[in-house]
Amino acid sequence: MVRPPTPARTADLGITLTLAMRGFVDLLHRGMDERGFGDVRPAYGVVFRALRDGGLTLTALAEQLGVTKQSAAKVVADMQVVGLVAKRPSDTDGRAVVLELTDRGRAAMVTAIAIGGQLQDALAAEVGEDAVDDLHRTLGAFIATAGGADDLTRRRSRAVWF
Question: Which range marks the domain in which residue 131 is found?
Answer without folding.
Answer: 13-153
